[in-house]
Specification:
Number of strands: 4
Mean pLDDT: 96
Distance between the termini: 6 Å
Strand order of the largest sheet: 2-3-1-4
CATH superfamily: Nucleoside diphosphate kinase-like domain
CATH architecture: 2-Layer Sandwich
Bound molecules: adenosine-3',5'-cyclic-monophosphate
Order of helices and strands: EHHEHHEHHEHHH
Low-confidence stretches: none
Largest sheet: 4 strands, antiparallel
CATH topology: Alpha-Beta Plaits
Radius of gyration: 16 Å
Strand content: 15-25%
Number of domains: 1
Length: about 160
């Protein structure tokens, strides 16, 4: 099974959207295998947003990401990285498709509620940045045979 990182940003907490966001991922059929509330320190912001360090908006992005705690979550599923990106929607909230989380709940580009793993940014590495192995749970979920067909599960462990 593929794993992907989701970070509910300070705007999600301030706007009381955490429950709704978790619920959308749960209803989709994604399995929550880790979740915690954290503060993101300077080092983690710079590592996480390495490609944006030096951009005009980086100092705002850092300030925003440190303006309150965030909720980080690891989701698991067949092709979970792309499935989560699809229901999250485009980066700029006001341009994201209706029906996606950002399309329905966000207007901003920085204040876009969620960070989700990008396949180009090594999701496994990203998960390691925020979660230790013993914070990730391998457990049986009883609805799997109603979420996937046996065919889709046969190559998964
Ligand atoms: P995220 O998915 O967390 O990945 C990088 C983040 O940088 C992005 O969401 C936005 O919050 C932020 N970002 C990207 N481009 C811009 C921009 N042009 N101005 C402000 N913030 C941006």
């Amino acid at each position: 099974m593929e794993r992907t990182l989701v970070i509910m940003k300070p705007d999600a907490l301030q706007r009381n959207l955490v429950g709704e966001i978790i619920s959308r991922f749960e209803r989709k059929g994604l399995k929550i295998i880790g979740m915690k509330m954290i503060s993101i320190d300077d080092l983690k912001v710079e590592e996480h947003y390495k490609k944006y360090v030096g951009k005009d908006f980086f100092s705002h992005l850092r300030k925003f990401m440190q303006s309150s705690p965030v909720v980080a979550m690891v989701l698991e599923g067949v092709e979970a990285v792309s499935a989560v990106r699809l229901i999250t929607g485009a980066t700029k909230g006001r341009e994201a498709d209706a029906g996606t989380i950002r399309g329905d709940l966000a207007m901003g580009i920085q204040t876009n509620i969620l960070h989700v793993s990008d396949p180009a940014e090594n999701p496994k590495q990203e998960i390691k940045r925020f979660f230790t192995e013993d914070e990730l749970f391998d457990y049986k979920k009883i609805d799997m045979s109603y979420i996937y067909s046996p065919d889709e599960l046969k190559d998964e462990k």
